[in-house]
């Protein structure tokens, strides 16, 4: 037990008029004199009817509370904003930093000694980890868990990898309206977040890999009774964390971050997670260059046979043992000494863990692929870096040269992509500009540029597509994303013109515009900055302060001051 005065004691043991007010107002809600002497545990409930992935959180919270009471703490539930991917326009990414700010300030401003953060949908867990890093009070992430597998005609369906497939086949004329509606009804059949290894599952795995969630938390289906137990254990454990005074900065060390990246690479995790990991590391005062991801990717075999890069989904992952079993397999590549929210090291957590299904979690010695899922590309088109999820790429495009077909914005692409007169063939490189953090704004997940109708009808299902935007973690295809600097800040990507030749070489980690320097200089001198999107409010704050993707798309003023000063030249 730490000797430090708990934050709640400074409120409830206070002998001034304010202590009177705190005690009186709190007791009026039914808490007793005894309750307010115990560690006060904030439970951040992000239930929202605008967020399908958190629809069951009110129930989970009750189990967390039970755990808190049992361990001798007093739970107090509070809300923050909640971000559900499907509704938020122009993109949920615009609001991740707002949620991180909301969460951090709620954690800091109240008489709470520790926090359980309930997250699930894509941007929520990153926002909460960023907040926990900055607030640095004892915290545990409790993810809501994935949906059960969708089912239709004996087939296992995954959101939203199959959402793309069904829409595509409908557009190609292979599915009628009734069949499409049937698929819509079958794909999401329970509470929970997307059940492929998309961003939500990746971030839940990262929370475990970092040591910020209890082992096994990520993969338990949302509606499995064992998630109730996990919720209760999490409530139980946060009280001990307060007593041990174990804080996020003690857990999220450089080594823990490397462990989380190793888990991501072995899982075929989402490219979005790279932006989030960089943002989390920076909140902790650490720089996390894209090269670190590439180095770890090169030395980490791809082991997890989950969609969109493999065959199965989170439900089978859970049955195979979940993240602890994957980490057991990866043990030789992990730092074993990292402290975790269990109060034990990552190595201690993995004692007695086994892999229960080798079709889902491959052996380290016989991996699905010898290296990791994500490659970082450099070259004259993306001096700041760009990403490709190579496990979801068609093998024929690993080395490719093609002529650019350029779209200046998402709207321009939507207008022209299906035009029968569009000068495009299956070897073309589709280029979509102005999708970046400032340009779109908010770096939306529009990087999965649709295949033009006329090529779809010819049976084409993949092409090389490049953008300064993001893709959903559930996407598949040859998609180069996060090109930095983005076109809206004058990056070379903005200078591509129709017919330019572009070279992609994933083995050599290269994305190159085959246009000579002189010509590029000429184009640069004619380049004009687009008008800002917002003239007031949060959008303006976002546009003025958001960092480029390789710096995590955080706001510059949210970085610790020392790091901000150090990075001054690049922000
Ligand atoms: Fe929430 Fe996919 S929509 S995780
Ligand atoms: Mg998503």
UniProtKB/TrEMBL annotation:
Query: Which is an annotated Pfam family here?
Result: ILVD_EDD_N
InterPro entries, A to Z? Dihydro-acid_dehy_C, DiOHA_6PGluconate_deHydtase_CS, ILV_EDD_C, ILV_EDD_N, IlvD/EDD_N, Sugar_Degrad_Dehydratases
Return the EC number.
Answer: 4.2.1.-
Tell me which UniProt keywords the record has, alphabetically.
Answer: 2Fe-2S, Amino-acid biosynthesis, Branched-chain amino acid biosynthesis, Iron, Iron-sulfur, Lyase, Metal-binding
Say if the entry is tagged with keyword Iron-sulfur: yes
Segments forming domain Dihydroxy-acid/6-phosphogluconate dehydratase N-terminal = 38-349
UniProt keyword annotation of Metal-binding present: yes
Q: Which residues form the signal peptide?
A: none
Indicate the enzyme's highest-level EC class.
lyase
A GO MF term: lyase activity
Q: Which residues form the Dihydroxy-acid/6-phosphogluconate dehydratase C-terminal domain?
A: 359-553
* Family, similarity comment: Belongs to the IlvD/Edd family.
Name of this chain's protein: IlvD/Edd family dehydratase
Q: Which organism is it from?
A: Oceanobacillus locisalsi
Q: What is the lineage of its organism?
A: Bacteria, Bacillati, Bacillota, Bacilli, Bacillales
């Amino acid at each position: 037990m730490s000797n430090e005065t708990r934050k709640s004691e400074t409120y409830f043991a206070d002998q001034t008029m304010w202590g009177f007010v705190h005690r009186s107002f709190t007791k009026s809600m039914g808490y007793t004199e005894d309750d307010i002497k115990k560690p006060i545990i904030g439970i951040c409930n992000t239930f929202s009817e605008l967020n399908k992935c958190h629809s069951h959180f009110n129930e989970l919270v009750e189990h967390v509370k039970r755990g808190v009471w049992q361990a001798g703490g007093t739970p107090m539930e509070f809300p923050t904003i909640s971000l559900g991917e499907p509704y938020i326009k122009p993109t949920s990414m615009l609001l991740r930093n707002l949620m991180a700010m909301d969460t951090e300030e709620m954690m800091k401003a109240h008489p709470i000694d520790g926090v359980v953060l309930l997250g699930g949908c894509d941007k929520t867990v990153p926002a909460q980890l960023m907040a926990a890093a900055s607030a640095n009070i004892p915290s545990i992430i409790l993810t809501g868990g994935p949906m059960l597998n969708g089912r239709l005609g004996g087939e296992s369906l995954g959101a939203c990898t199959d959402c793309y497939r069904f829409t595509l086949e409908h557009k190609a004329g292979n599915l009628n309206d009734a069949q499409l509606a049937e698929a819509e009804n079958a794909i999401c059949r329970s509470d929970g977040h997307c059940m492929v290894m998309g961003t939500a599952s990746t971030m839940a795995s990262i929370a475990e890999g970092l040591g910020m969630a209890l082992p096994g938390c990520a993969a338990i289906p949302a509606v499995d009774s064992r998630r109730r137990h996990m919720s209760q254990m999490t409530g139980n454990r946060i009280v001990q964390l307060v007593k041990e005074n174990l804080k996020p900065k003690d857990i999220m060390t450089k080594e823990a971050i490397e462990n989380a990246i190793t888990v991501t690479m072995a899982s075929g995790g989402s490219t979005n997670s790279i932006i989030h990991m960089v943002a989390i590391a920076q909140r902790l005062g650490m720089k996390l260059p894209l090269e670190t991801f590439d180095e770890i990717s090169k030395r980490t075999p791809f082991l997890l046979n989950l969609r969109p890069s493999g065959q199965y989904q989170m439900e089978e992952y859970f049955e195979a043992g979940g993240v602890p079993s994957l980490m057991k397999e990866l043990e030789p590549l992990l730092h074993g000494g990292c402290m975790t929210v269990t109060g034990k090291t990552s190595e201690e957590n993995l004692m007695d863990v086994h892999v229960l299904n080798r079709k889902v979690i491959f052996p380290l010695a016989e991996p699905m692929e010898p290296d990791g899922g994500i490659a970082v590309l450099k070259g004259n088109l993306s001096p700041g870096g760009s990403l490709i999820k190579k496990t979801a790429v068609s093998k024929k495009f690993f080395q490719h040269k093609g002529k650019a077909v350029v779209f200046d914005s998402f709207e321009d692409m939507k207008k022209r992509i299906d035009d029968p007169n569009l000068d495009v063939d299956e070897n073309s490189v589709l280029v979509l500009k102005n999708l970046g953090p400032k340009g779109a704004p908010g770096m939306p997940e529009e990087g999965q540029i649709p295949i033009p109708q006329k090529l779809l009808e010819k049976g084409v299902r993949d092409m090389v597509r490049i953008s300064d935007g993001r893709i959903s973690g559930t996407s598949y295809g040859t998609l180069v994303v996060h090109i930095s600097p983005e076109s809206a800040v004058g990056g070379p990507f903005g200078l591509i013109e129709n017919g330019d030749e572009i070279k992609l070489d994933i083995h050599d980690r290269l994305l190159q515009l085959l246009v000579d320097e002189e010509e590029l200089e000429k184009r640069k001198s004619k380049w004009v900055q687009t008008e800002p999107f917002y003239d007031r409010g949060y959008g303006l704050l976002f546009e003025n302060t958001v960092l480029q993707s390789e710096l995590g798309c955080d706001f510059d003023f949210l970085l610790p001051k020392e790091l901000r000063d150090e990075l001054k030249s690049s922000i």
